[in-house]
Write a structure and sequence with these properties.
By secondary structure, the chain is an alpha/beta fold. The chain contains 23 helices and 23 strands. A hairpin with a 5-residue loop joins strand 6 and strand 7. Helix 16 crosses helix 20.
């Protein structure tokens, strides 16, 4: 296969363009007019300042992870059109159970997107960036639906700029076997809907609806359909280019940009082991063997100047690495590539090295030309869990909280070294901020734009106040018109599940109280409680931690943090009604020495209660009020803070924050170690030991997540290299 031209040459051309522009500006500045009439005293030589005036601040709204699904779309299949509604439309929606067990909503976020656009438009914002996952899975029905909405707002004066996410596309090439098995029917049941290439459709399974409106489109098809939203140049743009652009004489023209934008001109070589093309030889030398499974792939990265002085750098950080199923004779078979979801920037720096060179070039040109550069991609460039990732890995189950998606430290160093100073990411449905300074003093801020489809739904407004000061505001979507429009259909689903006697249906029953919520904020708050109960507690929490978290209220937790007893877990069965825990998650162990009577637990609990009461009083709180933090509240609050950061604390309120702060400080400085039998705690551990050991760490993580860099309204001082709170309303666990 022929290697692609050296990226270095392309970047040199881009840098020459910047130099040529600066020289042209200087050449056009005449110090004086030689034809001026003589005067007695020669006029002073006027030397114009070659520095252009600073750009006018342009606010940009960042709306990440919309996960748009067209809830009134058209499957284009006569067998199933969705659920007929009273106004003549058909609701093409997923079940409530599917939503309550997913880290994203599928249905109500449709209305949230409209609310966000209306809010931004009312605030005078005309530039909107979407950092990936703008659709649920790049299905034609959803892609066409969101495109129509953006065109509507575009007609009102808005401009939209997209970056690809791991859900758009899911694979680099079209997948005609994809589909979903949980669309809702008018009877409240699940309906499987697959693309026509799915084996069930090929076999003419009568239980399956087949339509290519549900296939998953690849990169090229998406770029073609969404061309006018940044992937192709617009005549109104002052600049538009890709990492591969080469403009004649370094001068930008729309016609040349249009030619450069063709997919055939936006390809790079990727191999199983790393970057191909001009980077392959060095990679092979470092690896000590030849690169394999090499193929060309499309990259959709672009730089655009939609408003004078504002540069938006949309980075295609999707990395689809060839896998064991890759067939060089069928390079466009989607099965031959690993998904991009866990790859992110960890793979960008090894498999798309040309992007790192290009980002460095753009950052240097932006600095030289005084441009307000905002870079965005779908993936975070540094630890997004407020530097709590290592602690979370140590405490929770392997893979919990998708920690595999956290970028390595090498990523933050590599991106900072390019000179890029601001990056807006998404992907994790997380509201947060982090910064990093490398050994060379390069400073990078990563702003995590939250999803519109989860608890803490919000969008960001980013504005350069001057060349070195950036203002970031978070706009929560607590109020969303029409958010409850689909609720009557969920009532039917709930009734069906309650009336069904099959174990599979019984396992999918959900709390109907969510349909009583009065706002989108309340709705997503309860959604996360149910998501925690139905999925996170099993998936993320070890057995004994899950039992404690789902059994103890805040008062009992505070008392347990103070408890000292010799009664063991094995003896709990003989002391009922004192501590709502069991030895069910423990392994049988051997008693070490004489044991105390189980009845002594009551007295020990009373002593711990007195100590807890004293702690609460000293903090100006009442111990009994801690009982108002139910187990459901606690683990919901924990997961909401993981995802929404500072926004979750604001939702909790000052009293709840103060109660958690006391719990964080209530544990022994050095809790006793847990005695284990294999990988399980022994039932010979004293009752308090596992809880104090594990939940001291849980509350430390909660404190870290709730005491991170400001993530609501804040300023970024690029010169002073710091992030500062711009609001006095923020709450923290500090």
């Amino acid at each position: 296969m022929t290697s692609l031209p050296s990226t270095r040459l392309r970047l040199t051309s881009a840098a020459s363009c910047a130099t040529a522009l600066i020289l042209a500006l200087l050449a056009g500045c005449s110090p004086s007019d030689p034809a001026a009439p003589p005067v007695t005293t020669p006029p002073p030589v006027q030397t114009p300042d070659p520095t252009p005036p600073p750009p006018v601040p342009t606010p940009v709204a960042f709306m990440s992870d919309v996960h748009f699904q067209n809830v009134y779309g058209d499957f284009k299949n006569s067998q199933f059109a969705g659920i007929p509604t009273k106004d003549g439309k058909n609701a093409t929606i997923r079940t409530m159970y599917a939503q309550l067990t997913s880290t994203r909503l599928f249905n109500e976020n449709y209305f949230a997107f409209f609310a966000a656009l209306d809010d931004a438009y009312a605030k005078g914002i005309r530039v909107v960036a979407l950092p990936g996952d703008y659709t649920d899975d790049a299905q034609p029905m959803n892609v066409d639906g969101i495109a129509e909405i953006m065109k509507t707002y575009q007609a009102k004066g808005m401009r939209f700029f997209l970056a690809p996410g791991n859900h758009d596309p899911v694979e680099p090439y079209d997948d005609n076997e994809a589909g979903k098995n949980d669309f809702l029917t008018k009877e409240g049941k699940e309906q499987k809907i697959f693309a026509t290439g799915n084996p069930a459709c090929v076999a003419k399974d009568p239980t399956v609806i087949c339509t290519d409106q549900i296939m998953e489109q690849g990169t090229e098809r998406l770029m073609t359909k969404m061309a006018e939203f940044g992937f192709m140049p617009n005549k109104a743009d002052l600049l538009w280019e890709t990492p591969f652009s080469k403009y004649s004489g370094g001068k930008y023209t729309y016609d040349e940009a249009l030619a450069q934008a063709a997919v055939k001109n936006r390809q790079f070589e990727i191999c199983l082991e790393g970057s191909g093309g001009a980077y392959k030889a060095a990679g092979e030398a470092k690896l000590g063997k030849a690169f394999t499974k090499c193929t060309e792939m499309i990259d959709s990265t672009y730089l655009v100047e939609p408003v004078k002085g504002l540069w938006l750098l949309s980075i295609d950080a999707n990395v689809f690495v060839p896998n064991a199923k890759f067939d060089p004779a069928k390079p466009h078979d989607f099965k031959g590539y690993d998904g991009a979801g866990n790859a992110g920037w960890n793979k960008v720096i090894t498999h798309k090295m040309f992007l790192m060179d290009y980002i460095k070039s753009v950052a240097a040109r932006a600095k030289a030309e005084g441009k307000q550069l905002m870079a965005f991609s779908h993936y975070p460039t540094m630890d997004f869990y407020a530097n709590q990732t290592a602690a979370m890995k140590a405490v929770f189950k392997s893979g919990a909280f998708q920690t595999a998606r956290v970028p390595d430290q090498t990523v933050a160093n590599a991106v900072a070294a390019t000179g890029l100073r601001l990056h807006v990411g998404g992907h994790m449905h997380f509201n947060g901020t982090n910064d990093h300074q490398d050994a060379g003093g390069n400073y990078l801020v990563n702003v995590q734009s939250p999803s519109l489809a989860v608890y803490g739904a919000a969008y960001k407004i980013v504005t350069y106040k001057n060349q070195d000061t950036i203002d970031v505001q978070t706009m929560p979507l607590n109020t969303v018109p029409r958010f409850a429009e689909l609720f009557p259909h969920y009532v039917v689903e709930n009734d069906y599940l309650k009336g069904s006697s099959t174990p599979a249906d019984a396992a999918k029953r959900w709390d109907r109280d969510i349909l009583e919520t009065r706002s989108y904020g309340e709705y997503t708050h309860q959604y996360f409680g149910e998501l925690s109960r139905l999925r996170f507690m099993d998936e993320y929490w070890p057995c004994e931690m899950k039992e404690a978290a789902m059994a103890l209220n805040g008062k009992q937790m505070l008392i347990l943090a103070q408890l000292q007893t010799k009664v063991t877990l094995a003896q709990l069965k003989d002391a009922p009604g004192v501590v709502p825990l069991t030895a069910a998650c423990a392994a049988p162990g051997t008693a070490a020495g004489a044991t105390v009577a189980a009845s002594t637990l009551a007295a020990d609990w009373a002593d711990a209660t007195a100590r807890a009461d004293k702690l609460a009083s000293a903090a100006g709180l009442r111990l009994d009020d801690f009982a108002g933090i139910s187990a459901y509240d606690f683990y919901g609050d924990f997961h909401r803070t993981v995802y929404a950061g500072e926004l979750a604390l604001r939702d909790m309120g000052q009293q709840r924050v103060n109660q958690y702060k006391l719990l964080m400080a209530a544990f022994p400085a050095t809790p006793a170690a847990i005695v284990k039998v294999g990988d399980k705690p022994s039932d010979q551990n004293p009752v308090h030991v596992p809880f104090q050991n594990q939940f001291k760490q849980v509350f430390a993580i909660l404190k870290g997540l709730g005491s991170a860099k400001p993530s609501d309204h804040f300023t970024v001082d690029l010169q002073g290299k710091k992030v500062s709170n711009a609001s006095n309303n923020g709450l923290s666990f500090n």
